[in-house]
Amino acid sequence: MATDAEVRPDLPARQFDALLDAANEGPGVQFDGLYVHRGAEDYDRLGGYTLGTPEEERTNLSESEFHAAAAARAEYVTNWYFWRHVVGGAERRGGVEGDAPRHHRRAFLRWVERADDGDQTVPERYAALAGGVSREWGQLRVTATLGPAGERRYELRHVDDADASLDDLDAFDDPLAARDVATYDEKGRYRPLKTAPTLRSGWVIRNLDQRAVVQAVDAFYPATIANWNLERAGELDVSHWDETAERQTGIYDVVDELSGDAVDRIAESCCVDSQCLKRRMWDENEETELGPERGEGIFPCREPCSLVIAAARKWTTLEREEPRTYEFELTPSEKEQLEEIVDAVADGRIDEIREADVYDGANRYRARYLRAKRFDEEGNLSGTPTEPDGADAGGGSGGDASESGEADGDEAEPAE
Amino acid sequence: MQALVIVAHGSHLNADSSAPTRDHADTIRAVGAFDEVKTGFWKEEPSLREVLRTVESDEIYVVPLFVSEGYFTEEVIPRELRLEGWDVSKWDSDGVDADHVSLTAADVGKTVHYCGPVGTHESMTDVIIRRAESVTGDPDVGEGFGLVVVGHGTERNENSAKAIHYHAERIRDMDRFDEVRALFMDEEPEVDDVTDHFESDDVVVVPLFVADGFHTQEDIPEDMGLTDDYREGYDVPAEVDGHRIWYAGAVGTEGLMADVILERAADAGAEIGEAIEVVRERTRSAPAAGD
Q1: Residue B68: its chain A contacts at CB < 8 A?
Q2: Which residues 6+ apart lie within 8 Å of A250 measured at CB?
């Protein structure tokens, strides 16, 4: 044991009293390497107290000796107190205090300080916590540290700000500041999908207690802790595309028309890591997997989300159209430029293209030149009308006119 | 432990849509009546499908932040929350009478006290009046004033109009305002002709909407002739046909809405102590949510 790294917290009277109660009244304590009971064995209520850790066992102690022994192993006792009485959610199994099933807050907090894998003794974990233990949750960096009596403090910041000095960050101590940070991206655009990889940096939320840190993480990435923990327990209730589409009513009733190929394209368009940090666990159905990568994210996606369903409604109407053969006149470079433009939009690269970079086909001047050359007054590519008779597009790209007039687009549902 | 879960529509496009929901949740959280206060959305996160699993409490009071009974409260919310054995007949409502029903949410196995929407609760009448007080800056507003409760109105859902008429009638019975009318965006009598319906010089217009958005910020001000172009804004009050129109914007942004949410939960059996009185007092001086 590296003695210089040891962190020995204070043992407040309240914590020792709780330990004493557990030894006197209950079956004792058996948690994270600490065991405590009264009597020679844990079923024996006579005789002195026993306090054991992986380092040593002390038996037949008087109450004052027990107190001294507990203070000498205050890491273990404060650790037990924190998890038993502050966090809660402990459940005794085979005499040992483990995690109650579906206690997502406890499971997450254990994971944050790497208590869940059991590789470290409590003194080793305390030594690590004294310097701060950090883990990544999506684009969040969660850091746990230790207070003087074993209580944990947490800090959240963007992973990109891991090494940033506090002076350079906007500091908050209200966990609900997370809501405001998460609402808009770096460019001030609304983020309807909280798990999009567009969380802005430059902030820190500090001095969070164990409840507040979970509240904040849940504001950044709603329900991800619960779903992650359910998945760890093998209880994640995945709803595949087919059953999710089938469930829809109202204006979304139509999405079950989409073919498997279209669903594949939806997953590729919306659900890969570049678009969403959740790891897609749903497929077309139980038997038929979708092709695109599921993603590497730590928290799972258990069903197509409302954004996917709303977009799917649009694709359902678009997929009802039959392809036609058009004739366009383009130079080889102009054809490639159109491809470059689609790629630039699809990859969200538009804002990176420098104003004077005319070598990039998606450059604004290049696009304007192409439009000036190849679009007629009606905006038709190469002068080719969308409808053969030259009428306005019916079900084609112009079919949105009525919808775009409504501020909420596809959100216009029966009012109530 | 008991939790309050406020469920609302939310928006993929407009960040302000859910702002009042979160503000009311904050107001209620601050009075400490519930161990947990959460929000869940149809269009935002956590979704209605997943909000219940973020709750630790075993008793959950779900209050829909919707203005009337209909598609969302009767079909979408119970389905998405997986309320076992839900049937709209359990509310035994004639359109504005939904109170609460206690069911089990299948995925989390917890008891959910599913409440009627805020918009049809009798205390919503007080919020409309509070809104009229806020917009006129007069806590005694009434004499010499007309008041309009504006609804969306839609042929697909007759309950939408019922809620509007219900509150208009209750306000009329108070004899506080000289004239009280129920007007609609999409059906007769229409809000476009607001001044035709009043003799009073001053008319307060309160839309029974949960959040400000396209309808309350663009449609209604233009329809009433407060402005030709919503982007240029409008005066409060604005002169229209010799009347002064005091346009209040969505009633749902009024701080007192938190009281209606609490009333719904209390009616369903939540133990909230003095929370209703505290919220009524605190929201009196607070600026309207989302402002």
Answers
A1: 415-416
A2: A413, A414, B71, B75, B76
Instruction: Confirm whether the ipTM is greater than 0.90.
Output: yes
Give me the architecture of the A104-232 domain, per CATH.
2-Layer Sandwich (3.30)
Residue A68 phi/psi, 5-degree rounding, is -65, -40
Considering only CB atoms, which chain B residues are within 8 Å of A303? 49
Any domain includes B246: yes
- Contact criterion met (CB < 8 Å) for B76 and A249: yes
Domain residues of chain A, as ranges? 9-99, 104-232, 241-319, 325-391
Chain B environment of A193 (Cβ under 8 Å): 45
- Are A104-232 and A241-319 the same fold in CATH? no
Residue B243: CATH number of its domain: 3.40.50.1400
Structural domain tally of chain B? 2
Q: Confirm or reject CATH 3.30.70.2320 for domain A241-319, answering yes or no.
A: yes
| Assigned domain for B63 exists | yes
Which residue is it, tokens 């109202």? A250
Q: Over its length of 416 residues, how does chain A's per-residue pLDDT go in tens digits? A: 444 457 788 899 999 999 999 999 878 999 999 999 998 665 666 779 999 999 999 999 999 999 999 999 999 999 999 999 999 999 988 888 999 999 999 999 999 999 998 889 999 999 999 999 999 999 999 999 999 999 999 999 999 999 999 999 999 999 999 999 999 999 999 999 999 999 999 999 999 999 999 999 999 999 999 999 999 999 999 999 999 999 999 999 999 999 999 999 999 999 999 999 999 999 999 999 999 999 999 999 999 999 999 999 999 999 999 999 999 999 999 999 999 999 999 999 999 999 999 999 999 999 999 999 999 999 999 999 998 875 555 444 433 333 333 334 444 454 45
Do residues B263 and B99 touch, judged by C-beta distance below 8 A?
Answer: no
Q: Do A408 and B214 touch (CB under 8 A)?
A: yes
Residue B194 lies in a domain: yes
Q: Report how far apart, in Å, the C-alpha atoms of A138 and of each of A221, A303, B224 are.
A: 8, 18, 48
Q: How far apart are CA B129 and CA A264, in angstroms?
A: 52
Residue B83 burial class via C-beta count within 10 angstroms: exposed 0-12, middle 13-18, buried 19 and up: buried
Q: Is the dihedral of CA A171, A175, A177, A180 positive or negative?
A: positive
Asked if B78 and B193 sit in the same domain, the reply is no
| Residue A300 contacts residue A228 (beta carbons within 8 Å) | yes
Judge: A223–B54 Cβ closer than 8 Å, yes or no.
yes
- Which of A349, A380, A346 shows the shortest CA–CA distance to A364? A349
Residues B264 and B249 in one domain: no
Contact A104 B53 (CB under 8 A): yes
Measuring CA to CA, how many Å separate B230 from each of A79, B195, B221, B239, B240?
A: 60, 19, 7, 15, 15
- Kindly state the tokens that stand for A226: 């619960």
Judge whether B29 lies within some domain: yes
Q: Which of A195, A303, A411 sits opposite B12 (nearest CB)?
A: A411
